[in-house]
Design brief:
Length: 148
């Protein structure tokens, strides 16, 4: 599969989150070209403020691989990760991060605190922003437009 195909899977997770009444954000963890885990926002469903798509996917990947270190894994997520998720990505030792839409209000990769550039960040993945940006951004804009 290609990077775009993995982002398509993340977008499918985002659409499933939206169908469940959640903010439409999806995430896929990949290692050696194989999907290890998928996740979608579940904060409302699980009554858990930490159940962001990235956290859900990282937890599932750790359980499947039997390790808290996801060395060699790549993360594809539809929205720029927040500070909490960037921290989790760092602690998991993710190799590459691909994200769709930038999040000027809540993002922490190339927006806001720029977590991976912080001197207190122990591991920074390679970052590839803008993959699937148009589809990711449109999904989020339509979701919030419908609620206003």
């Amino acid at each position: 599969m290609t990077s775009h195909s993995f982002m398509d899977l993340a977008l499918a997770q985002a659409r499933a989150a939206e169908a469940a009444g959640e903010v439409p954000i999806g995430c896929v963890v990949v290692r050696d070209g194989e999907v290890v885990a998928e996740g979608q926002n579940r904060t409302i469903t699980d009554h858990d403020p930490t159940a962001h798509a990235e956290i859900v996917a990282l937890r599932a990947a750790g359980a499947r691989l039997g390790s808290e270190r996801l060395t060699g894994c790549d993360v594809y997520v539809t929205l720029e990760p927040c500070t909490m998720c960037a921290g989790a990505i760092s602690f998991a030792r993710i190799r590459r991060l691909y994200y769709g839409a930038a999040d000027p209000k809540g993002g922490a990769v190339e927006s806001g605190v720029r977590f991976f550039a912080s001197p207190t960040c122990h591991h920074a993945p390679e970052v590839y922003p803008g993959l699937g940006e148009t589809d990711s951004g449109a999904l989020l804009k339509e979701f919030f437009r419908a609620r206003r």
